[in-house]
What does this fold into?
Amino acid sequence: MQTARTKSQSRSAVKSWKQAGESVAFVPTMGNLHEGHLELVDVARQHADRVVVSIFVNPTQFGEGEDIDNYPRTLDDDSTKLAEKGVDLLFAPGVSEIYPGDSSQATRVEVPKLTGILCGEFRPTHFIGVTTIVAKLFNIVQPDIAVFGEKDFQQLFLIRKMVQDLDFPVKVIGASTIRETDGLAMSSRNGCLKDVERKTASHLYKTLSEMAFILKKGDNDFRSLEENASKILENAGFTVDYVSIRRVRDLQTATSNDTVLVILAAARLGETRLIDNITVDI
Ligand code: PAF
It folds into this structure.
């Protein structure tokens, strides 16, 4: 596996593959890799000749009071895992390589409106940071395919929209959420949970699964279902940001005429914010 620290090193590796007629799949990450990330790498491998993974803890997607300094950085371990997976290139730039000037003055990419709903209501600058860094990484790596986890449903939705609106020649693929045995979606944040919180955390997926079951049985009083689920989670010990039943096609609030749905939730246990979702066709 090659490791590139600079944009030009990454570009020249990818250029040589493209010149040889090889296709390139890309998995952007912030490191601290777990099984969920490695699954994204497997999906990438199935779709292209070469696989590039980036590790970059992107400062612009952390809001005020969100502790970027304590975000786990495990580059050596991550690098070993990626090499074992047969990844062709690890792109691991430093902050000054990606944001050489004052990032608050730099051009941003924003998907209007959708950036401010659901998680965006609680993290108002987060998705602007995400779409901006993903656009930059697409321009640096120039992949044919990019793979993102469906666990971050709103992020995936926004990236697909950005790709469509800005005509990036990149095919975006969503990969299924990988779960622990008790259902908890794998996430770098799970490692921040205290033992007792880790036990409680599985209630998030359980609650969403129960909602999906009730929806499938024909209950379409979506607002009551959301309220009940929030109460259940609060009683279990969560502080709930939202539980929301939305339309898959545009992420707008679902009404009783809608049938292709996604239930999304964000809830905090102590300092740790967890998100999850389930899609349901009724
Ligand atoms: O999902 C993530 O890990 C990040 O939001 C991403 C897509 C790598 C952008 O920094």
The CA atoms of residues 7 and 89 lie 12 Å apart.
